[in-house]
């Protein structure tokens, strides 16, 4: 909420640890558990943990909306938890040569660039909440990335051998990852102070936080 004189204050609920935020923290903790299960060759346990983490992703977003507990902390933790899980999973699969190394590098690079860009914008005092939302291509990208992980891990768990399907999923995932990465890059550039234009189509300026309740 803005105060007279151009000063900005953060509503108290932006600083508290809400139920959705706690669920997000659980997802973060599931990432090392997934790695441990994967390293120990407990592949079934690994993909079960991955599935549970995916369910917590849907649950925290749903509860944040229903309980009206969307916070700045949640806006930071949620994408970090998602990307930590996906980056870790693709790194593990690439080390085992279960997915192409170039695809893992593409997925990891995209997420590192996005998180790094968001961190820079935050340091430049640009409020991200409500300005960068998941796009349709981004949602499809996440779906494809998760789907490929599930397929590969199920394939290894039950000794399937469908390289044709895996190649198709890899190509789809790569194309969507590239498209969504370029899209977010363009959006991020428009939000930089003094950039081509800000989120409202106006010349970019270094606006301070505009946190709503």
Structure commentary:
The protein is mainly α and 213 residues long. It has a single domain, classed as Four Helix Bundle (Hemerythrin (Met), subunit A) (Up-down Bundle). Helix content is 67%, strand content 0%. It has six helices and no strands. Helix 5 packs antiparallel against helix 6. The radius of gyration is 19 Å and the shape is globular. The protein starts with 18 loop residues before the first helix and ends in a 22-residue tail after the last helix.
Briefly note the CATH topology name: Four Helix Bundle (Hemerythrin (Met), subunit A)
Number of spatially distinct domains? 1
Name the CATH class: Mainly Alpha
Helical segment count? 6
Assembly annotation = single chain
Give me the secondary-structure category.
Answer: mainly alpha
Percent helix among the residues?
55-70%
Q: Sheet with the most strands?
A: none
CATH architecture: Up-down Bundle
Strand content: under 5%
Instruction: Please report the total strand number as a whole number.
Output: 0
**Uncertain regions: pLDDT < 50 for 5+ in a row?**
1-13, 197-213
**Cα shape:** globular
- N/C terminus separation: 7 Å
Order of helices and strands: HHHHHH
Gyration radius, in Å: 19 Å
Mean pLDDT: 78
